[in-house]
Amino acid sequence: MAQVTVRIGGYAHPVACQDGQEKHLTNMAAEVDKRISALKGMGIQFGETRMLLLAALQLADEAMDLKAENDALKAGGAVAAEAPAPDPALADGLVRFAEKLEAIAARLEEA
Length: 111
Hints:
Elements: E1 2-8, E2 11-17, H1 22-41, H2 48-74, H3 88-110
Helix pairs in contact: 1-2, 2-3
């Protein structure tokens, strides 16, 4: 099991992942960091836990939209032309990542 330290919102977080998944984890963390930077750019000033929660909710929302599009495609429905092709593996990964972030946020709030 590999250990990666990712920086999100200016804070370092050690995270374990499967060997060979370090780059994938780093890319996901960069996406979360991008979301937090965007929230801060809008003037939102919450603590680390709240910012992680908001970023996780954004990612979960996008994942659910992708899942709905994927379900519509499987059912033979049409998807808007400008929408990117849904990637079920990415959507599921984002949902799992959002759940992990929510668990981390809960632990941080308890501390």
